[in-house]
Every structure is written in structure tokens, then in C-alpha cells.
Amino acid sequence: TKERRVEAALARETASLKAVLAHMPQGITVFDENLHLKHWNPGMLDVLNLPSDIVVQDVHFDDLIRVPAHRGEYGPGDPEQHVARIHALAMKFEPHQFERTRPSGKTHLVSGRPMLADGRLAGFITTYTDITERKRAEDALCLSATVFENSTEGIAITDAKARILK
Q1: pLDDT per residue over 78-122, tens digit each?
Q2: Taking burial as the number of CB atoms within 10 A of a residue's CB, which of 55, 72, 116, 154 is the most buried?
């Protein structure tokens, strides 16, 4: 029947979307307009180092950010004040992108966007990308440039044909 074909198509589409989420190298979360978690992928647990037992359907945003707050990842001070501050920012539902280096030394890029459905706010989607290796390479390059620029010795950079580049 037509109804069964539609159900089968929806089941295939759902399975496909779940596979996409599961295989993304980035972590991803989708929160509704009340800051309840609706969708996430395993990458989010890896990047944010969250215990899997608290990452469940409809868990509140505050309960998730409370974990890194209590680990001191938002800096010194009362973890609950950090939770309140971050909650207030999330409630603005504004696009955001920033890098965050965790105490472990890992750096991730957080990029969030509000979501609309039928012209109204439906929540927000956020991706979490581990950029640790890129940041280490940038830091090494910056250090090399600083050493080069501040050297009192004569330094020349040449290409493969021994032409002086700098």
C-alpha cells in the first residue's frame, strides 16, 4: 500500500541520517528552544569527553555543561556561575564560533547556529571539531617566525635552487 511505501521510505531516510551522524568526524548536538538535547552523535562524546550515561534524550543543556564546569574547564571560580553564564549566552540563540583549549591540551572549534522551523525558533545546532593538531602546527609556525624575526644572527631562507627567499 501507499502508506507502507511511505513508512519504508521514512525508515530508510532515518537510517541514512543516523549513519551520517554516526560517521561524522565532528561532534554534533541539536538542542530545542528549551535547551533540551534532541540529537547528538558519538563524536560529541569524544570531543567533549562527556560520560555517555548523562548524554540522553532530553537532558538539559545545563546538565551537560556542568560536567566540564566542575572539571574547571571554564576557568577558576564557582562552576555553577559558569553554568549560569553559559546558559544565558545559549538562550540568546545567536550564531557563534570560537576555539576552546581544554586543560588536557586539546583544542576544539565550537560552531553553533540557531535553527528555524516554520519561521519560528526551533533550537540550535552546534558542531565540535577537534583542531588540536592544527593549533599545535600554528603555534610551532608562530614560534619559528618569532625566532627568525628576533634573531641577531644572519639567517637566510633559500629555495631548492639556492635562491634567497628571505
Answers
A1: 999 999 999 999 999 999 999 988 888 889 999 999 999 998 999
A2: 55
Residues 6+ apart with CB under 8 A from 131: 99, 107, 108, 109
For the CA atoms of 16, 22, 26, 31, the dihedral, rounded to the nearest 10 degrees, stands at 80
Q: Locate cell 556542568: which residue?
A: 66
How far apart CA 121 and CA 83 sit, in angstroms, is: 22
Q: Which helix (H) or strand (E) holds 85?
A: helix 79-90
Residue type, 68: P
Contact 164, 157 (CB under 8 A): yes
Say how far apart CA 82 and CA 74 lie, in whole Å. 7
**Rounded-to-integer distance, Cα 31 and Cα 86, Å:** 14
Long-range contacts of 126-129 (CB under 8 A, 24+ apart): 126/28, 126/29, 126/30, 126/31, 127/26, 127/27, 127/28, 128/26, 128/27, 128/28, 128/29, 128/43, 128/44, 128/47, 128/48, 129/25, 129/26, 129/27, 129/47
**pLDDT tens figures, 46-84:** 888 899 999 999 999 999 999 999 999 998 999 999 999
